[in-house]
Design goal:
The complex is a heterodimer. By secondary structure, chain A is mostly helical. Chain A contains 21 helices and no strands. The longest helix of chain A has 32 residues. The two termini of chain B are 31 Å apart. Classes of the chains: A mainly alpha, B mainly alpha.
Chain lengths: 473, 511
């Protein structure tokens, strides 16, 4: 049995061990094909993932900085699950299994480690450090295809905007420390009241920093370029996990221990949600590149999650957690279909999906499921996700926000249906099945199963989310 | 009913869905089996609908054939079904139309397996809306009834023949207006736009009822504040109204109906638009009586615009399907006008009109589908003298047309008479005027079309055409029979309907 302070961090320690293992093995790796290295990393994450299924809430670590409560465990399972799908999809293809497989996986696992710590951090300094551990590898990974000029541009853009927002975050946190005289989030929550201008200012500045990471409007500029330029399995992962981590931090900083006073965030969160939904959906309309389309639609989805945030209630928090789970399956699935088609056709344009239903009916059906889920159609995961956040917002009296959100889903359905039209109504440009590699197919099957299972029987995940969200308030 | 303890409503609702699954998984590349499965599963629904129609206890009234299974207890969502006099008739309507629709589209050749599977899934959604008593489940079924439409119209639909000119040519280049893809997208987005309002309304009711339940029966006992009643009724009116084709949110309907394949047009114009009216009456008026009483002037006035505007538009069309589609807009105005009168005759007329118009427009679209399939044209000007080459189709069309303009002994007459009586007795007597004008205009365009296409001089191009064949007769005979039967014996329908409208009215205007 581990000593108490270590017991809380068992997942982080295990992941650290995997990280070291990959590092050491990479020293001995030779040749072009290094998929065994990718396989090792995947195996390691699988082991940590399995471990996360058996860990139980543990007493807080040193000085209450590091907590392993229900929320942290829920979030870590989510991160690990998404990482498994992401790594699986990259297996056997460049760049994840090529000559630089070692670097790729080291960076990705480091970022994951940052997320795991972030989910448990209840101290401003630990939180900031974890945030940076998570972010910096992402900048490198975004530019991983370094011979591609757009990738370098995207990476630079991502890095510059990211650094500025980190600076804003640190600046805001310093105000918070100044006003609350402690880096302990529990003490910050106690000190919080709307009559404390300095603390309020600090937390608002920090919100801008977090909004960058979750890519809420107007902090979303890095998203489309980065998504378009980076390798698709990585983007699939990037589009969900750091955002989930960002939301967990939001819960920790803005909700935990605040109780009724969390209502203070309602107007600003509702405003942020509105502009994010409207902007994301409208900007997605003219996109001809599927990855850019998904990037902007992803911005809109963050807006929908912020609707739950605006409810500032346990129900709202739980519904965001559920939304995140649904989002992992649907959004990653959609990106992976793009990857599958791009490997065969060499194009990521929506036009490459033409007539997919007649070429590969199952792949088209999977894409349709993911799109319907993203659009919020009944009996797939995304429907319940949207519905539950709307329900939480309505219960908090924000009917106008629900109406805006629901009306804008119509816009979203327009561009999702355009993709569906390409697949189902238009004729294929050339005949022939699209060949899938086995790991990618497996990842797609996992996503499709998740989307359908959550759509048909969402109850267990909803209940689990409610259980972990309730103690926050 | 003790002999029939099986969950009748569930069987009616899900039987087509089972058919859809069977078709998807067992009947690949066997078109005959596909049609057979579709006919059998919808036939089961039809027989059971007739069964419950006969077995419904008129003395007891209220919701019968009740079923309930808790789905998500913490939110109070349950799978709760039941029918009263109003939904009883509409379930029967749905069953008749889809059964006829399966036969009317017997000749669909392209990807027929997917076509029938989607069509049957859609029908399950429609049945579900009419029978569910849980607002949340109702919403689910509503979405299920809307979405397959996109693919059904987009893949199997037909585009208009005449390319637009002038400013419309520009619109065509930009949006593809008039094509089936355009129509499919427009229809889907309009209806989902409506569903956004419905969703907000349902949530508002859930919150304000405070019972923690989405059940219609629980909400019926709750008391809502007047302010809430007003805006929530408005939300439901707009939300369901889009589907019912209220002016100025109706423009999806002519495009959609004209572009859709036959069975989908039948189902959509015949049943789905009624679903909107049903939503306004059941959810809007039933749960928010004060809001309804306060806002009927709006409902009725817009309905008047619908009647006249729809009829005038129908007169101006040169495309046969658009004529029928605009006549639906006009007739839906009659349905809502009748409901807005808040009189017993009016409400009965409203429900009866839903039924009569559903059958009639189903018949029209079936016939237009047949004509189009044989003549490959929807342009009225190009057709003529079909009465000689297809006497059966011509007869059926004429019967439908006479019902449409309200000739006695057809269902249309009963519905319109009740509507006029209701309008006269209501607080807004002037509503009678647009209603009568609408009927007159209907006579003009229906007779014009009938004369031109069926009884005009014979065109040499179309001498080789044939009359309806085999399975197609099933659809025509069934629909004509029902149309005349309920016109001769309106009591068949009005008996059960009356048991539901009287209590509804009592809630709104007091006993």
């Amino acid at each position: 049995m581990l000593p108490a302070p270590l017991a809380a961090g068992v997942l982080e320690l295990a992941l650290g061990a995997v990280l070291l293992l990959v590092f050491v093995l990479n020293l001995f790796a030779r040749g072009e094909d290094r998929r065994w290295l990718a396989g090792t990393a995947l195996g390691g994450v699988l082991v940590v993932g399995a471990l996360s299924l058996v860990v139980t809430p543990a007493p807080a670590g040193p000085g209450g900085m590091f907590v392993q409560d229900g929320l942290a465990i829920f979030a870590k399972r989510l991160f690990l699950g998404a990482t498994v799908i992401g790594l699986l999809a990259g297996l056997g293809a460049r760049p994840a299994s090529g000559r630089r497989a070692g670097e790729y996986h080291l960076l990705l696992l480091t970022s994951l480690l940052g997320m795991l710590v972030l989910a448990s951090a209840r101290d401003l300094i630990l939180l900031f450090v974890a945030f940076e551990v998570m972010s910096i590898p992402l900048y490198v990974l975004a530019g991983f295809l370094k011979r591609d000029a757009t990738a370098v541009e995207a990476s630079l853009k991502f890095f510059l905007v990211g650094s500025v927002s980190s600076a804003v975050l640190a600046y805001g946190l310093s105000f918070v420390y100044g006003a609350a005289r402690s880096t302990d989030l529990a003490k910050v929550a106690q000190a919080f009241s709307t009559a404390e201008p300095l603390l309020l200012l600090g937390l608002l500045a920090a919100l801008a920093g977090f909004a960058f990471k979750i890519a809420a409007f107007p902090f979303h500029m890095w998203v489309p370029d980065t998504y378009e330029a980076a390798s698709t399995p990585f983007v699939a992962w990037l589009s969900v996990t750091p955002k989930a981590a960002g939301f967990v931090v939001l819960f920790r900083v803005y909700f935990e221990g605040m109780g009724e006073r969390a209502d203070a965030w309602m107007p600003i969160a509702a405003g942020l949600a509105t502009v994010t939904i409207v902007a994301g959906n409208l900007m997605a309309l003219p996109q001809q590149n599927t990855k850019r389309l998904l990037a902007y639609s992803g911005v809109a989805h963050i807006g929908y999650m912020l609707v739950g945030f605006a409810a500032a209630s346990a129900a709202g928090t739980a519904m965001i957690l559920f939304y995140l789970v649904a989002y992992v399956f649907s959004n990653m699935g959609a990106f992976l279909v793009v990857e599958a088609v791009a490997r065969a056709e060499g194009s990521e344009a929506t036009a490459a999906l033409r007539g997919l239903a007649q070429r590969s009916p199952l792949l088209a059906l999977a894409m349709l499921l993911f799109l319907l889920s993203l659009g919020g159609i009944p009996f797939v995961a995304g429907f319940w996700a949207k519905l539950y956040v709307f329900w939480a917002a309505a219960a908090a009296g924000l009917y106008w926000l629900v109406l805006v959100g629901a009306v804008l889903t119509v816009v979203a359905l327009f561009y999702y249906l355009l993709v569906a039209k390409r697949m189902y109504i238009e004729a294929p440009e050339r005949p022939g099945r699209i060949q899938l590699s086995a790991p990618l197919a497996l990842a797609l099957v996992l996503c499709a199963l998740g989307v359908v299972a959550l759509g048909v029987y969402p109850k267990p995940v909803v209940m689990a989310a409610l259980r972990v969200a309730t103690p926050l308030f | 009913m003790d002999a029939l303890r099986l969950p009748v409503l569930s069987v009616i609702t899900w039987s087509p869905f089972v058919g859809a699954l069977l078709i998807m998984f067992t009947a690949r590349h066997r078109p005959r089996a596909v049609r057979l499965i579709a006919a059998v599963t919808t036939g089961v629904s039809l027989l059971l609908s007739l069964g419950i129609y006969v077995a419904y206890d008129r003395e007891g009234a209220g919701f019968q054939f009740y079923e309930k299974v808790a789905l998500v207890p913490p939110l109070g969502i349950s799978y709760e079904l039941g029918v009263d006099g109003i939904s009883l008739l509409l379930v029967l309507l749905t069953a008749i139309i889809i059964f006829a629709g399966v036969f009317a589209s017997w000749t669909v050749k392209v990807r027929s397996q997917e076509f029938y599977a989607l069509l049957l899934a859609l029908v399950t959604g429609v049945f579900g809306v009419f029978v569910s008593l849980d607002l949340f489940v109702l919403f689910l079924f509503y979405e299920l009834a809307v979405l397959p439409m996109y693919l059904l119209i987009g893949i199997w639909g037909s585009s208009g023949e005449i390319r637009p000119r002038g400013i419309f040519a520009w619109a065509y280049r930009e949006t593809g207006v008039g094509t089936k893809e355009y129509a499919a997208m427009k229809l889907t987005l309009y209806l989902l736009f409506g569903s956004a309002f419905i969703l907000v309304g349902i949530f508002a009711l859930w919150v304000h009822a405070g019972a923690g339940s989405f059940s219609y029966l629980d909400m019926e006992t709750a008391v809502f504040a007047p302010g809430v009643q007003r805006w929530v009724f408005l939300a439901f009116y707009v939300g369901f109204g889009v589907l019912a084709g209220i002016w100025p949110l109706h423009t999806w309907s002519p495009d959609g109906h004209a572009s859709a394949p036959t069975a989908v047009s039948m189902l959509h114009a015949g049943v789905l638009m009624k679903l909107g009216a049903y939503g306004i009456v059941r959810v809007g008026m039933g749960l928010l009586p004060e809001g309804a009483a306060e806002l009927v002037w709006l409902v009725g006035t817009i309905a008047c615009v619908n009647i006249v505007y729809g009829a005038l538009s129908a007169m101006a069309q040169t495309d046969l399907k658009y004529v029928i589609a605009y006549s639906s807009v006009s007739h839906m105005g009659l349905v809502l006008l009748a409901a807005a009168t808040l009189t017993e005759a009016g409400l009965n007329g409203s429900v009866f009109q839903m039924f009569a118009h559903g059958i009639m427009t189903g018949l029209f679209f079936a016939l237009v589908g047949l004509v189009y399939e044989k003549a490959h044209s929807r342009e009225i000007g190009r057709m003529g003298g079909f009465g000689r080459v297809m006497p059966g189709v011509a007869t059926a069309f004429t019967v439908g047309g006479l019902s449409s303009l309200g000739l006695p002994a057809t269902s249309g007459f009963v519905a319109e008479l009740l509507t006029f009586m209701g309008a006269w007795r209501s607080e807004h007597r002037w509503w009678l005027f647009p209603a009568v004008v609408g009927t007159f205009l209907t006579a003009v365009y229906v007779l014009r079309v009938t004369k031109q296409i069926f009884w005009g001089p014979e065109s040499p191009h179309f001498r080789h055409l044939e009359d309806a064949r085999g399975p197609e007769w099933v659809a025509l005979v069934l629909l004509v029979f029902v149309l005349v039967l309920f016109g001769m014996a309106p009591g068949l329908a009005l008996g059960p309907v009356d048991t539901a409208t009287v209590p509804l009215l009592a809630r709104i205007v007091g006993p």
